[in-house]
Amino acid sequence: MNTAPGGPDAPAPSVPGTPSAVVRHLAAPARAAAHFRALLDCTTDVSDVAGALLGEREPDFVLVDTRSAESWGQGHIPGALHLPTATLAAGAAPHLDPAVPVVVHCWGPGCNGAQRAALVLAGQGYRVKELLGGFEYWVREGFAYETAGAGGAARRQDLPDRLTAPLGTADCGC
C-alpha cells in the first residue's frame, strides 16, 4: 500500500478530536480482561497442545478431531480421537469421560466445525476448548501427522511455514 503523503492509498487525514476507527469502540480495562480471560478459557493453540501431547507426561485432556472420515483419512493428529460433529448429537458418553477436559478441532480457521462440536459437547456437560487453527495449523507449524490409505497408516511431517511458526525453535516467545 502506498502511504506516501498525497498518494492514492494515503490514509485520510484525521479530524482533530475525532477518534480513529481503531479506538472508536474501546473496552474498559476490566471488560477487556474479562473478554480475554473468556477467550483463554475456551481456546488453546497448536503449540500448547503439541507440547502437552509430545511431553513427558500423559496429557490432561483428550483431543477430538470433529471432521469427516474422509478428512480424518487425509490426515490427523496422532493421539486424537475421531468423533465427527454429526455423531455428537447422539451423545459422546461412550467415548469421553466427563471428568477429562476435551479439546476439539476441525480443519482450520476458515471452518467453524470445531465451534459447533464444542457447543454440542458443552451442552452435554463437558468442559471443552477449541484448538485455534485446527488441523491446518498443526501441519503448517511442522508437527507430525498421520494419514490413512489403502496401504495403512503413514506418518508425515512437513516443514514449518515461516508465517505461522518460528523456524529453528519451538518457542514463539508469546
Architecture blueprint of SSEs:
Layout: H1 29-42, E1 43-44, H2 46-54, E2 62-65, H3 69-74, E3 81-82, H4 85-88, E4 102-105, H5 113-123, E5 128-131, H6 134-140, E6 145-149, E7 152-156
Plain-language structure description:
The chain is an alpha/beta fold and 174 residues long. The protein is built from 6 helices and 7 strands, in the order αβαβαβαβαβαββ. The strands form 2 sheets. It has a 5-stranded parallel beta sheet. The chain has a two-stranded antiparallel ribbon with strand order 6-7. Strand 4, helix 5 and strand 5 (128-131) form a beta-alpha-beta unit. The mean pLDDT is 89.
Structural class: alpha/beta
Share of residues in helices: 25-40%
Run of helices and strands: HEHEHEHEHEHEE
**Shape from CA axes?**
globular
Radius of gyration: 20 Å
Keywords:
alpha/beta, 5-stranded parallel beta sheet, 174 residues, two-stranded antiparallel ribbon
